[in-house]
Design brief:
166 residues, alpha+beta, two-stranded antiparallel ribbon, disordered N terminus, disordered C terminus
Length: 166
Amino acid sequence: MTQQVLSRRNFLRGGRHGATARIRPPGIAEDALAACTGCGSCVEHCPTGVIRLTDDLPALDFAAAECTFCGACAEHCPEPVFADGVAGRFDHVVAIASSCLPFQGVDCQACRDACPAEAIRFRPVRGGPFVPQLVAEACTGCGACISVCPVGAVAIAPRSVEVAYA
C-alpha cells in the first residue's frame, strides 16, 4: 500500500487533487528501475532532498524541493540504475494553471524568481499584473517553481504537449 503524504497546501485545499505519475531521478530509464534495490543511497546523498523512496523505488517530490542535476544520486548508486549519468533536463516541462494569482488579478512572480533556467517570463497586461509565460525550450523540468507557488498552480506536463494559458 502506498502512503500518501499531503503537503500543508493540499491538506488545506481538501486533499490530493489527482494522481501524479512517478518522476524518476534524471538518468534513470523506466526499465532500469528493475535493478534498484531500494537501498536509499540516492535519497541520502541528494543535497536538495527532492528524492524520496516510494514503494522502495526512487521518485522525485517537487513539492519538497528541486532537482539541480548535480549527479550525486548517480554517483552514489551501487546498482546499474543510472544509464548514462545524469541528464541536464527532464522529459517534462511545467504548466501554469488558470488558478495562478496573476490570472486572478493578484501580483505574484514567485515562480519566475525561483526558476534557475529563466524559463518563466512575465508579460505585461493592460490594467492588471504581469502574467506568466513559459519558454518551453528553456525549461529543464527541475521543479524549482513548483514548491514556491503559493496556490499550487504550477505542475508538470509532458514536453510534447503544447502548454496553453488561460
